[in-house]
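User: Just a sanity check before I run the rest of the batch. Below are the C-alpha cells for the first item. I only need the designed sequence back.
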C-alpha cells in the first residue's frame, strides 16, 4: 500500500526510528524523498537536534511520576525508555516543536507580495506590462523603455504627432520603483504602489499630471507654463523646482517636501507657499495644513533606493515596509507603535534582514503567526 507523504503519523514514526537507528530500507527511501523539500529538511534538523530532544525529555519528566533527576549520561537512557514504553510516537515528535511539525514553515519571504512588473494603461483602456514583449506597442505611442537593474526607466518622445496624443496611466507595483522623463523634460521618480496619469505629449498651454502614491519631481523650468500636480483633494503648482509628494489613498495626510525652488500647495480651502527645506502636511479629514522645516533626505532617500528612518516611530516604519514588501501586520499592543528607531538600509535587502535588525534591539519582538506579522 502506498504511503501518503502528508501522513504526519507515518513520518513521525519514521523520524523516530531514524533517531534510534532502527530504520528499514523502505523507510529510508520514504525519509529521503521527504527530505528533498528544503522546509522539511530544516524541520528534520530541528527534530534531531540532541539538545532540543534533551530539553523536551526534561519537560516531559516534570509531568511524569516523581522520578529522580537523571545525570547527563542517564538522560539519553531516560528518553529511550520514555519513547519506547510511555510516550506514543506521534506525541513526542509533535512535542519537539509545539506546532504541527509537518506544516510548511512560513518565512518572511513567503509573506512578501512582490515580483510584479510596472504596467501601463492606454487611453482605450488596454493594460499591459512595461516589458520587452510589449515594447513595440509602447514605442508606438512615443515611450522608450530602458531597464536598469531594479529601476525601470521610461522616456517620452517630444515629436509625437497631434493625432497620436493620448492620456496614459503608469502604475508601479509593490517593491518596484521607476523613473519617467515626460515630454517637456520633467523627470519623475515613482515609488512602490503608485500611479500617475498624463498625456504622452503636453500641449503648449498645459503641463498637468494626476497622481496617487509617492513621487519626486524634477520639473523642467517654463515660467509661462506652470507644472501642476493634481491629487484627490489638493494640488501643487510649480514653475521649475524639485519636490517630493506623498499621497497614498490609505493615508489621511498629503506631504509635500521641497528640495529646491518654490512650490504652492493648495487644498479646497487654503494654500501655502513652500521653499527648500519646508514641508506641508495636509490633513484630508480636518482640511488643515501644517508647515514644517524638515531634513529633506528623510523624505527623499527612497528615490536613491534606500530606507532611511531617522528617529521614526515603529508605526511609521512598519507602514513603509508594508508598502515596499507587501505583507500584512498587526500590533499586539499600543505601546510598541510608539517605539522609535534609526535605520538606514538599501531597499534590496530581504524583509527578514530588516526584521532581524529591529528584533536585535531587544525592545521589540516581531514574529509570524498564521501568515501575519505580529509586533509586541
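Assistant: Here's the designed sequence for the first item:
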Amino acid at each position: 500500500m502506498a504511503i501518503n507523504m502528508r501522513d504526519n503519523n507515518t513520518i513521525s514514526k519514521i523520524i523516530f526510528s531514524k533517531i534510534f537507528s532502527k530504520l528499514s530500507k523502505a523507510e529510508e527511501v520514504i525519509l529521503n524523498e521527504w527530505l528533498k523539500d528544503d522546509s522539511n529538511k530544516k524541520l528534520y534538523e530541528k527534530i534531531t537536534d540532541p539538545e532540543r530532544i534533551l530539553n523536551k525529555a526534561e519537560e516531559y519528566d516534570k509531568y511524569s511520576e516523581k522520578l529522580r533527576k537523571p545525570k547527563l549520561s542517564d538522560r539519553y537512557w531516560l528518553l529511550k525508555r520514555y519513547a519506547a514504553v510511555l510516550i506514543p510516537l506521534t506525541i513526542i515528535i509533535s512535542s519537539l516543536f509545539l506546532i504541527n511539525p509537518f506544516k510548511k514553515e512560513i518565512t518572511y519571504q513567503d509573506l512578501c507580495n512582490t515580483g510584479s512588473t510596472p504596467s501601463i494603461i492606454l487611453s482605450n483602456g488596454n493594460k499591459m506590462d512595461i516589458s520587452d514583449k510589449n515594447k513595440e506597442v509602447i514605442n508606438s505611442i512615443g515611450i522608450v523603455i530602458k531597464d536598469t537593474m531594479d529601476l525601470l526607466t521610461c522616456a517620452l518622445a517630444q515629436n509625437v504627432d497631434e493625432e497620436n496624443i493620448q492620456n496614459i496611466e503608469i502604475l508601479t507595483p509593490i517593491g518596484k520603483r521607476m523613473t519617467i522623463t515626460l515630454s517637456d523634460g520633467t523627470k519623475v521618480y515613482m515609488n512602490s504602489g503608485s500611479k500617475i496619469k498624463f498625456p504622452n505629449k503636453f500641449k503648449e498651454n498645459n503641463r498637468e499630471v494626476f497622481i496617487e502614491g509617492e513621487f519626486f519631481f524634477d520639473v523642467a523650468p517654463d515660467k509661462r507654463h506652470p507644472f501642476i500636480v493634481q491629487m484627490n483633494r489638493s494640488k501643487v503648482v510649480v514653475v521649475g523646482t524639485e519636490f517630493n509628494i506623498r499621497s497614498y489613498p490609505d493615508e489621511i495626510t498629503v506631504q509635500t517636501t521641497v528640495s529646491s525652488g518654490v512650490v504652492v500647495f493648495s487644498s479646497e480651502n487654503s494654500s501655502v507657499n513652500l521653499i527648500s527645506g519646508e514641508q506641508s502636511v495636509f490633513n484630508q479629514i480636518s482640511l488643515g495644513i501644517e508647515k514644517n522645516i524638515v531634513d529633506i533626505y528623510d523624505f527623499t532617500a527612497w528615490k536613491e533606493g534606500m530606507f532611511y528612518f531617522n528617529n521614526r516611530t515603529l508605526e511609521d516604519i512598519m507602514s513603509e515596509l508594508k508598502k515596499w514588501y507587501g505583507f500584512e501586520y498587526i500590533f499586539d499592543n499600543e505601546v510598541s507603535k510608539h517605539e522609535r528607531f534609526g535605520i538606514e538600509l538599501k531597499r534590496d535587502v530581504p524583509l527578514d534582514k530588516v526584521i532581524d535588525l529591529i528584533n536585535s534591539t531587544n525592545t521589540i519582538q516581531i514574529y509570524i503567526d498564521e501568515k501575519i506579522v505580529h509586533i509586541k
